[in-house]
Each structure stands twice: as C-alpha cells, then as structure tokens.
Amino acid sequence: MAKPETTVGQVLLARIAEQTAVLAGLDDAVRADEPDAVHRMRVACRRLRSALRTFRRLFAPGTTEELVGELRWLAAALGGARDREVLAERLAAQARELPAECGPERIAAALERWGEAEYRQVWPEVVAALDSPRRRAVGDALATLLADPPLRRRAARPAVPELSLVAAREQRRTGDRVRAALAAAPGDRDRALHEARKAAKRARYAGETAVPAAGARAERYAARMKAVQEVLGEHQDAVVAAATLAGHAATGGEPFGYGVLYGRQLAAEAAARERLPQVWKRARRAGTARFR
Fold this sequence. Notes:
By secondary structure, the chain is mainly alpha-helical. It contains ten helices and no strands. The protein has helices spanning 8-24, 27-31, 37-54, 65-95, 104-130, 133-147, 159-183, 186-214, 216-250, 255-283.
C-alpha cells in the first residue's frame, strides 16, 4: 500500500505544535532573566502569528484572528526590554571604536548605564505579562487549536504544491514592498523599508514551515528571504539608533561623541539601502519559490 501523501494541513499543524512547545518551555527561563530567553520567546510568538496569518486560508473564517492578536500582544510585551538591551549593547560596542578625542569609554559607560536603567524599568511589565490570565489564555487557545484544528477542506491538499503557492505569494508581496520602499520619498522611506522587512520575515517563516515537506528547496528560499530581512534589519537598527543618539545629544553629556556615532548610523542606513537591490535580485530569481 502506498504511503499517504503529507497534506499542507499536517505540515502547518506540525509547525504550530513545534512553536507552541518552544513558547511553553520558555516561561521559567524568561522569569529567571536567562540570556536570550526573552528573544527566543518573542521569536516563537512571531513564528506562530506568522503561521496563522500566512496560512489563514486553511482555517475556518474567524477562528484564528483573536489568537493572532493575542500573540501580537505577548510579543510586544516582551519587546520593550529586549529592544532596549540590544540597542544599548550595539551603541556601547560602537562607542568603544571611536577615536580617543571622542571619549569612547565615557560614552560607552553612559550608554550601558542608560540601557540597564531602561531594561530594569520595563522588566516588571514582562513578568506581569507572563503571570497574567491573558498569557495563560494564549497557551489554552493554542492547545485547543491543536486538539481540534478548525481546518477547511483545502488543508487536505498535498503539501508541496500548496506550500509552493504560498511561498510564491509571499515572495511577490515582499517584492511589492521592496520596490515601493526603493521608490519612496525620503520622508516616507524609513517606514516603507520597515514594512518590507516585515514582509521578508513572513516569507522566510513560510519557507521554514515548508522545510519538513519540501526539503532543500524550501531551505534555500528561506535563506534568501532571511538575507533580505537581515539587510533591512540593519537599516531599521540604524534608524532607531540614530533617533536614540539624537535624544542623548540633545540632553547634554557628550554631544561631540554622540554626533560622531550618529553619523555612523546614517552611513549604516545608506549602506543597507545600497545593498538591498542586489540582495533582493538574488531572492526574487525565477524558481526560488518552486518546491516541486
């Protein structure tokens, strides 16, 4: 007897089950403030949310929207602490590379103190979110979805052709946003590039979901979309860092050193924008989203 063909619904549910287990297993690590625990939990939230949104046509209408919103809330609750921590580490490391006349150690120490203070200010919000009934409800909703999946008939279709269609759709969506960002006026460009980054991340996650069924072709697709996401992430990190440095310079302290760091962020933004067309050209190649 021939082995039954894997369905797209089975692949999707396997992805959701995997990331649900990751999410559930990180609560204690996050409460203990273990290194990278907040980041890993936030990524699990994003991957779950992306799976529910990207493959929403496989679910009965109206059955996943509330869960998507709650996963967005949990990721945002985790994000404040993580974002400040990473930003302070990035800027302090760059400050130590400044010329001696900029006072590199003074600036690095000041940025580290700022990062620690910001982190500790928002940390109670992270713990409160984890201890809330709302967080427990997210876990319950995921368990219910896996126990009795509200799948439509199309979820029974063979996995690889359907996953290819989804990947191609996400590739087109990313391309639309990349082209719009590259053509945007300077005042709108940063926001447009950030939206392109989110689209590339969603495409990458779609590729990751497909890997168990589609293998190396899906891995290659995910890697190329990750490359697009990363260059756009470099741009967004520099935009946020520049805004933070402008605020520090305006409040006194080390305006000269902060100004030099600010200039480096502008250079990093420009470098990322310059690299983007070539990175996208590789990611959009014909056949990249063809898993069959």
